[in-house]
UniProtKB/TrEMBL annotation:
InterPro entries: TOPRIM_dom (IPR006171), TOPRIM_RNase_M5-like (IPR034141), UPF0292 (IPR022972). It comes from the Archaea. Pfam families: Toprim (PF01751). Keywords: Magnesium, Metal-binding. Belongs to the UPF0292 family. This is UPF0292 protein MTBMA_c12850. Residues 23-105 form the Toprim domain. Coiled coil: none annotated. GO terms for molecular function: metal ion binding. The keyword Magnesium applies.
Length: 138
């Protein structure tokens, strides 16, 4: 089961990398989320929602300048409320907000993590479950 979950999460991370390379903005909550995603090889472009001097409507307007936007807020109640509000605001501005990656990651990690910044450690834990012994001794 851990191997399948690891493969599924890796697929979603690779999709984020690809979309970032295409220049699709990724809406995240804050600096620690950005650091975690960069650790996983996702380069953005990132738009941070929390700690920004802009209001949510201004952030939505900035994000909507791209035709497609990935919303990747945390998996807790606050993150879900932010995702819903951003989705509505961005869609009303004529852009295409995408929640699919957030939903799939949340579904795979729901019992174990509640935020984006925990993804790297969760992935490492899954890797250890799949292969608990170092392979360099073989």
């Amino acid at each position: 089961m851990s191997l399948i979950k690891l493969q599924q999460i890796t697929h979603e991370i690779n999709e984020l990398k690809y979309q970032g390379e295409l220049g699709v903005p990724i809406l995240i909550e804050g600096r620690k989320d950005e650091e975690a995603l960069r650790e996983l090889g996702v380069e953005g472009p990132f738009i941070k929602v929390s700690g920004s001097m802009m209001g949510l409507s201004e952030i939505a307007l900035r994000a909507a300048s791209a035709s497609r936007v990935i919303i990747l807020t945390d998996f807790d109640r606050k993150g879900s409320e932010l995702a819903k509000r951003l989705y509505t605001d961005i869609q009303s501005l004529g852009a295409n907000p995408d929640l699919r990656i957030r939903r799939r990651l949340m579904g795979m990690t729901r019992k174990y993590i509640k935020d984006i910044q925990s993804l790297p450690s969760y992935i490492e834990r899954l890797k250890l479950e799949v292969c608990p012994y170092p392979l360099d001794n073989i």
